[in-house]
Amino acid sequence: MAQIKPAAIRNLKRTGVIMAVYLAGILAAQYLIERQGVSGPLAYSLALVPGFAMAALFWSGGEAIAETDDEFMRMLAVRQHLIAAGFAMSVASVWGMLEMFELVEHINPFFIVVPWAVGIFVGMIVNRITHGVWGQCP
Amino acid sequence: MPVKNRLRVLRAEREWSQQQLADALAVSRQSVNAIETGKYDPSLPLAFRIADVFGMPIEEIFLRD
Fold this sequence. Notes:
The structure holds two protein chains of two kinds.
Chain A: H1 6-35, H2 41-67, H3 71-100, H4 113-131
Helix pairs in contact in A: 1-2, 3-4
Chain B: E1 3-5, H1 7-13, H2 18-25, H3 29-36, H4 44-54, E2 62-64
Antiparallel strand pairs in B: 1-2
Helix pairs in contact in B: 2-3
């Protein structure tokens, strides 16, 4: 059985903490801003918590790449992330144009993480086809 | 510039598995396979580590295609 690398374990732990902060932040913001009517600087601070948590998720992905000692696996991970970024930006560009002409519904920009995650999966498939290896799941 | 290598032959001569070579180089088995099949050209530091493991000069392992 394949051994889980220390860098992957660290990334898993980081991701767990970030997702916990994200969930707690979004629940707290929804309750306090939407139900309790909190406003002003406190509302901004509450809304920023889940936003920064998502940003931390991308940082964690980059950190995981930097911590990967195996240069071949690191190269595959970089390819994966480039493909994911390109895929997500392409989706955003196309959707944005359609949205500008009111041909599709408005979607909040933070949903860009969904096509990004799909792009990571697409990157794994591309790696498998071109290099015979899936790479690693971030 | 295309580069070819003699990794598979050298490994076979020593009757090492890809995993054994990977362990000696502190890389994944997939890395060794990718180098052997020419899908990945290693960095200079890794190429020197490979040369050290085989006890040979780097130019006897990696050649111009």
